[in-house]
UniProtKB/TrEMBL annotation, chain A:
Source organism of this protein record: Natrinema altunense (strain JCM 12890 / CGMCC 1.3731 / AJ2)
Domain annotation Thiolase N-terminal: ranges: 4-223
Alphabetized UniProt keyword annotations: Acyltransferase, Isoprene biosynthesis, Transferase
This protein's name: Propanoyl-CoA C-acyltransferase
UniProt-listed SUPFAM superfamilies: Thiolase-like
GO terms classed as biological process: isoprenoid biosynthetic process
Record GO terms (molecular function): acyltransferase activity, transferring groups other than amino-acyl groups
Domain Thiolase C-terminal: start-end pairs: 241-382
Keyword Acyltransferase: yes
Organismal lineage: Archaea, Methanobacteriati, Methanobacteriota, Stenosarchaea group, Halobacteria
InterPro entries attached to this UniProt entry: Thiolase, Thiolase-like, Thiolase_C_2, Thiolase_N
Transmembrane annotation, as ranges: none
From TrEMBL, chain B:
Chain intervals with Basic and acidic residues compositional bias: 1-10
Cross-referenced InterPro entries: NA-bd_OB-fold
Protein name: Nucleic acid-binding protein
Domain of life: Archaea
Region (Disordered), start-end ranges: 1-28, 98-119
Amino acid sequence: MGRVAIIGASMTQFGQREGEWIQDLLAEAGIECLEDAGVDADDVEHLYVSNMASGEFEGQTGVPNALAHDLDAMPAYTQRIDQTSSSGGAGIYAAWQSVASGASDMTMLVGGEKMTHKTTGEATDVIASLTHPAEYKHGVTLPSFAGLTARHYLERFDAPRESLGKVAVKNHKNGVDNPHAQFQTEVDLETVLESPIVADPLRLYDFCPITDGSAALMLCPESIAKEYADEYAVITGIDGATDTHVVHEREDPTVMGGVVESGKGAYEMSGYGPDDIDVAELHDMFTILEFLQMEGLGFAEQGEAWKRVEEGHTERDGELPINTSGGLKSKGHPLGASGVAQGVEIYEQLVGEAGPRQVDADVGLCCNVGGFGNCVITTIMEAAQ
Amino acid sequence: MTMEATRYDDGSITYPGHPRGPGGSEPVETIDLSEYTAEIVTWTTSTATPPGVREPNHLAIVEFDVEGESVRAIGQLTTGDVETGDEVRPVYVDELRDPGAGIREPESQAWDGYRFEPV
């Protein structure tokens, strides 16, 4: 298998994009990615679209073909990738496979979702439709899983409630320097801890917002990457894994098996370990998820991620900056776009295009979580040598 | 009405049941968890609920001990006045949420079930 390079990236403004729908958002990111990579639409052989629920959200299906037409990328092969909230990461995996296998010499991945025209309750219900009937009939939602897990974590590991709030404070602070983020404002700890309860003990600022947006990546064999870019990134490790559909059946509520297994696979493929990672984007749909992924990926021992956060270890100037983009928490979470946008941030960090968010990084990792850890993709990239 | 868990040929029990259990084990019998009490593992009160769901919605993950074999379940609580470790019993409710209000096809699943009530 040849090495796969990322030679271009783009991201639309995340937030409430009134009057713009899924086709508009995908096309915006797609056109910008073609321009960023210096690739003609005619040269795109495979075109993947990461999207969870355009049919459920706006009654528009068949979006990959629609995008191919809007970009005039025919006759590119198209495919939609739905893996709920990890559709974006799964798209990176699919795009990587298409190039690594030799099936395509130029693959564009565009992830996107249009959500904000729905009420919070309606959007929450679309996302909660991934749950088992035994969960759904009780009104179980993804935020309620987060509340259940956060209480268990805090009680079991004697972690202070404030440590979760500090994740929100950090990620909002990072989002200030991301011009594409939905929220570009800092919040203080007191505001987080006094915000309205959503799923006790978690409050409004422990949760990501509902978001419209799109992001894209261009992948090709490393052997031709230099024809397009002086600076590029290489995907050195990638793996995906699942955990139980029924969340309460997991042996340990604080261990996400999909994070552990996909992380192991990505580390093994890349030859890197947790200590080699210079920057990471984790799926902070809820603040508690940042702790669980840090522990599942070996950045902290079980029950101790909160200590790393308290020590400032994960700040932008810390030992391991996490969510320099602002994370889902501040940047926003357009379901199908989020995993792709994680990849965009790591790519920009590795090629030195992160502007005021720039950290010193040669190797980066992103972890994209679907459901409540039901499906997970971990990707490791390095700056081209 | 029963709160039906499934025992597999390796002795493990899950709620709900699956066509195959842990390690590929095959189902051998069902067990009615409504005859047992359970202990609260963790709980939450959700205040941002989807269409057709009561608000606030008190929820818990509980653990039953069925002849030495533990089995967990998730469900609504009858009250938010609980603590981790409290003992609860299942109480039948004929409609846990409004089947017609959400995105899921009403005919695709059952809507009755059990809430957990402190003993």
